[in-house]
Design a protein that fits this description.
Length: 550
């Protein structure tokens, strides 16, 4: 009897154990099905942007309908699984969070591909709808908090990505300017057109970005509303960082700062072109005086005030950015002047390295070096007229400084006394020029360069003449060599009088070149004024015949 009872008990236990095993196997298989659903879930952009039922009557695409139906089916399966297996809540919690994670991973992948704000809102709306659906099934899973944290990461990534693309697009505009300057694109006024395009690209790009951010802030979606203050902070930080990087980009493009990606931007071996540097200088002025003000007004109109508080202050500081670009504008303008001056210095070196000035022949015409110099000045004038505005100040002439043309500042070498053939008297005149020089030195020669056509051209002319003076001081001239310098300078006075803004300072520097040549001359007897005028007029007539349209 005991043996029979024991046998029956064992069979009952085996049956119960067998049923329990079957239940566990079923539980595992069902959970595996739920996991496989998430593995096979491919969230395409079109599906997760438009599969929300709250789209104001917009018909859903078949794929969107299928996506929404599959999520609802998954939620019902989870609900049933939880009822059948109440001890499996923790596993289901992880499953629900995996579903939310997959939505945000898909969203972040599309953000990297430059996602429009409207599409981002659509994706977040679908994600939030699905989260609420799962939250009804698993209210203790903490899906809302989990979603807020994931949305925090995704929105911050979107804002950063939006600014990255803004910088990339604007850099592309500047690269086109570089190609234009190289002659890849032919236009009558390439720099002028490029400046306007660059201004519009910066302002319009910034306004489009702000419009995208405003769309996020105005959207009536709980997951976005909770991040309003943070989004405003990220936008302000983004603009502050954007303009800082833009300043660095300007310095790289101008050659003032080296970057490992420089060859990738322009192409290996490409040189920085002066026209681009001048454009960047004026663009810096535009950012300082116009763009920052407009962007600042738009940022201040965003709803909410950010989460930084009064102690920390706003993340976007317009005054700081204005100072950065004010400094950049001045630095780039000086860089342009230096680049152009260096090019002229190459002409100077060739000019003074070629002839033997001690054995120079009697001058018969203005030297061709002056033609090359004036051609370079014409190039500079063409560039600055396209980029820079005209100055508001009147020209500073000799009469503005000394009251008359017969002042002691007038160079004695220009007077009729110097045409005497007596060498001793000529040297006496040279001594008088030194006295005049002492008075002239009180004149302020190198003033601050303004962002105007006249100021930049005058600065380059002054630097060139000062360099010319130094080259002259390194030579020794015979009478003919000195007279050649005198003739060239006399011709320059005629041609530069309408070009330079500070005529008095330019005249002074021109006179200084003649004085320096006289000091280094073995027999400083100047040409007579009549001869100077005749040779100058002959050169002007020759130039006029060669360029009848000028």
């Amino acid at each position: 009897l005991l043996i029979n009872i024991s046998s029956l008990t064992a069979k009952g236990r085996n049956k119960k154990k067998s049923k329990l095993t079957q239940v566990n196997n079923l539980k595992v298989q069902l959970f595996k099905k739920l996991e496989e659903f998430l593995v096979d879930l491919h969230l395409e952009s079109q599906e997760i942007r438009h599969s929300s039922s709250d789209l104001g009557g917009i018909p859903l695409s078949p794929s969107s309908c299928a996506h929404e139906a599959s999520i609802r089916e998954f939620a019902e399966a989870v609900r049933a699984y939880r009822v059948i297996f109440p001890d499996s809540e923790q596993q289901l919690f992880r499953l629900a969070k995996t579903l939310a994670t997959k939505h945000f991973e898909a969203t972040q992948q599309y953000i990297k591909k430059q996602l429009a704000s409207a599409d981002l809102v659509g994706m977040l709306r679908v994600t939030w709808t699905n989260v609420l659906l799962m939250d009804e099934v698993l209210p203790k899973a903490g899906l809302r908090d989990f979603t807020f944290e994931a949305a925090h990461v995704a929105i911050k990534q979107y804002v950063a990505s939006r600014f990255s693309h803004l910088l990339l697009d604007f850099s592309g505009t500047l690269v086109k300017v570089h190609d234009n300057q190289k002659g890849v694109i032919e236009e009558e006024y390439p720099l002028q057109a490029a400046l306007e395009i660059s201004k519009n690209a910066l302002v319009q790009g910034s306004m489009d970005a702000l419009l995208d951010f405003r769309r996020l802030l105005d959207e009536n979606l709980e997951v976005l509303s909770a991040l309003t203050d943070l989004i405003i902070d990220w936008v302000q930080e983004g603009f502050q960082d954007f303009f800082g990087k833009l300043n660095d980009q300007f310095l790289v493009l101008s050659g003032k700062k080296y970057s490992a990606n420089q060859d990738l931007i322009f192409g290996e071996g490409d040189k920085v072109l002066p026209g681009l540097v001048l454009l960047l200088a004026q663009l810096s002025v535009f950012i300082e005086q116009n763009a920052i003000t407009r962007i600042s007004e738009e940022i201040s109109s965003l709803s909410g005030g950010g989460s930084r508080g009064h102690d920390n202050g706003p993340a976007f500081i317009p005054a700081e950015i204005c100072l950065i670009f004010q400094s950049a504008g001045e630095e780039l303008l000086q860089h342009y002047i230096s680049m152009k001056t260096r090019k002229i210095l190459i002409l100077l070196k060739k000019r003074f390295a070629t002839p033997n000035w001690v054995k120079h022949k009697e001058p018969r015409e203005v030297h061709m070096f002056i033609d090359l110099l004036l051609q370079e000045l014409d190039t500079i004038l063409n560039e600055v007229k396209q980029i820079l505005p005209e100055g508001l100040h009147h020209k500073h002439r000799r009469t503005d400084s000394n009251g008359s043309n017969t002042s002691s500042r007038s160079n004695p070498l220009r007077d009729d006394k110097l045409v005497r053939s007596n060498t001793q008297k000529a040297r006496s005149q040279l001594f008088e020029s030194h006295l005049a020089k002492l008075f002239k030195q009180k004149m302020e020669i190198f003033t601050k360069v303004e962002h105007t056509q006249e100021s930049v051209v005058t600065a380059i002319i002054k630097l060139f003449l000062k360099s010319l003076q130094e080259f002259v001081r390194l030579q020794t001239f015979n009478r003919s060599g000195f007279q050649q310098i005198q003739l060239d300078i006399h011709f320059l006075k005629t041609t530069l009088k309408d070009t330079a803004e500070d005529e008095a300072a330019v005249d002074f520097l021109l006179d200084e070149v003649i004085v320096a040549a006289a000091e280094r001359c073995l027999d400083p007897i100047p040409l007579q004024p009549a001869i100077l005028d005749r040779l100058t007029q002959a050169k002007l007539s020759k130039n006029s015949e060669q360029s009848p349209t000028s």
